Amino acid sequence: MAFERLMSRYIHIIYGYALARVGNPQDAQDILQETMLAIWRGLGSFEGKSSFKTWLIGISRRKISDHFRNAYKTDQLPLSDAEDNLSADGGMDSLSEAIDIKNAVKKLSENERELVFLIFTAQMTYAEASKALEIPLGTVKSRMSAIKTKLKTQLEKG
Amino acid sequence: MCNCSDIQHMLADYLNCGLDQRGNAQVVLHLSACKECRGEAAFMIRLKNAQAQALESIPDHISKNAFELISAAERQERLPIAAACDALELVGSVLRLAASAVF
Questions:
Q1: Dist CA A88 CA A38 (whole Å)
Q2: Which of A125, A113, A101 is nearest to B9 (CA)?
Q3: Does the distance separating the beta carbons of B48 and A123 come in below 8 Å?
Q4: Hey, is the C-beta of B72 within 8 angstroms of any chain A C-beta?
Q5: What pLDDT was estimated at residue B3?
Q6: B92/A9 touch (CB, cutoff 8 Å), yes or no
């Protein structure tokens, strides 16, 4: 199917984003499915005002917010240590460095981790992240500067 | 002329292929002459590699089940969407081809 083919390029980003936010593979899978349905239903209304990736992330964010709202209603509080569920294996040359970075990222605030995901994992530009997060471009820049400083400090500490 | 702060704010977009030709040239020119910004770029590449690494292992069953909620009936109703998907895919392919030819 054309839709599956189109989405195959983004599925890992959407799932990874959901997993990074909710911290539970089963919940992330549910969010992925709901996001795919919402994308399918909304594809006809995509106007190209933002990049396709920004639009997808926007839909994912809304589905993640719905998840948190529902979890709150049913007292199933979300896990925040999402990166614990992100696998660090898979043949990287410097596994220990990847783990160090993962641990350093884990110490960031939730907002900061979300921005790190969008920029470094989803490979969005600052402008795309600004639109997806609905914050000014200047805030993305200043937040990223602060994040890099924090990460460097953490990595230097070892 | 961009200073180090400007360039460091452009590095993520540069690494994510989000700059235009002029922006790319500014970054490359600056990096060729600035050790500090080269260090910053190296740091960002490490971050990007580590973050990308974390995404590679998505269980197969999750990818396969991702479209489960879209019912067969709904697919039939929205058949024209296939044409939109093809068009988006084509535009993406053309843009990637153009980018590879330019850079």
A1: 30
A2: A125
A3: yes
A4: no
A5: 92
A6: yes
Taking residues B58-79, report their average pLDDT. Answer: 78
pLDDT at residue A80, as a whole number = 40
Are B9 and A3 in contact (CB < 8 Å)?
A: no
Task: Test B84 with A5 for CB contact under 8 angstroms.
Answer: no
Distance, CA of A131 to chain centre: 14
As a whole number of angstroms, the distance between CA B41 and CA B48 comes to: 10
Q: Are A122 and A13 in contact (CB under 8 A)?
A: yes
Q: Residue A94: its pLDDT value, please? A: 56
What gap in Å lies between CA B79 and CA A33, rounded to an integer?
19
Q: What is the amino acid identity at position B71?
A: S
Name the token pair of A139.
């805030």
In this predicted structure, which of A33-47, A50-64, B39-53, B56-70 has the lowest mean pLDDT?
B56-70
Report pLDDT for B79: 58
What is the reported pTM?
0.74
Terminal Cα distance for chain A, rounded: 47
| Chain B residue numbers touching A15 (CB-CB < 8 A) | 58, 62-63, 66
What pLDDT band is residue A81 in, cutting at 50, 70 and 90?
very low
Tokens standing for residue A84:
């614990």
Closest by Cβ to A52, choosing from B43, B70, B88: B88
* B82: Cα within 13 Å, side-chain hemisphere: 9
Report yes or no: B93 at the A interface, CB cutoff 8 Å. Answer: no
